[in-house]
């Protein structure tokens, strides 16, 4: 187990290093002047030169890369050119929206998908199974931004149960904050629940064909007991993989949903920074999101060890 975790930890560190290098190269070393791009093509040369000096673009690329890494290690992500405020503070404010939204959507997705997967696997080949698979196929096909607009139309405009957008802040109370995140979380969770339900069903059906399931049935367990007590845990490896990927997507890929609901999250911050040509913010937020994705993958690897005892012996 220690060797397994050490290998995964080394892979995590190398992935972060490679990701930081790629992000830095894409935004700083590719052909083109980031300072001129941020100011526009009609900017005066002295203004461009001043911005280059402010951003450290007049330094060698290697020195800038090392300085950027050192700053991130200290929690210093630089200063936004547009807002003239520390990027770390902007990110911290936006994480307070994006992280709860991702966790809320993931909880909804898992709570819907696992029971559906169990229900469909227990009734494989029957009408109920066919109906669940048809519903999940529809969930995968429907774009989440279209579902988001439909939810706004029904629950905000027509029924007036929820606000059409915006976020009151956690200072208004947990219930008010969760209510504001409910429609966005549903819009994000529905397609992910459909994918996860199909994966869970397939993994459960494959596990139900194993010898230990037949042995459990021979000892007197009912089909439902064998499914929940034995098959579910052994089918969790692919399910955990999808859950980890989904959390990464929900945290880093919610740009459209955050813009539909006017949520001040990381996705909206990246969108605004790109439109305002604030490359300092773009570079920092993208690196933070990549770190989150890689860290979640590492945590999923640890979960594999807890679920599958065979990995503890490697």
Structural features, described:
With 314 residues, this protein is mainly alpha-helical. The chain folds into 2 domains: 2-73, no CATH class; 93-313, MetI-like (MetI-like fold, Orthogonal Bundle). The chain is built from 14 helices and no strands. The chain has helices at residues 2-29, 34-39, 45-55, 61-73, 87-122, 127-141, 144-158, 174-208, 211-218, 223-234, 236-252, 255-260, 266-275, 279-307. The protein is globular, with a radius of gyration of 24 Å. The termini are close together. The mean pLDDT is 81.
Helix and strand topology:
Blueprint: H1 2-29, H2 34-39, H3 45-55, H4 61-73, H5 87-122, H6 127-141, H7 144-158, H8 174-208, H9 211-218, H10 223-234, H11 236-252, H12 255-260, H13 266-275, H14 279-307
Helix pairs in contact: 1-14, 5-6, 5-8, 5-11, 6-8, 7-8, 8-11, 9-10, 11-14, 13-14
Please describe the structure with a list of short key phrases separated by commas or semicolons.
MetI-like fold, 0% strand, mainly alpha, 314 residues, transport, 14 helices, 2 domains
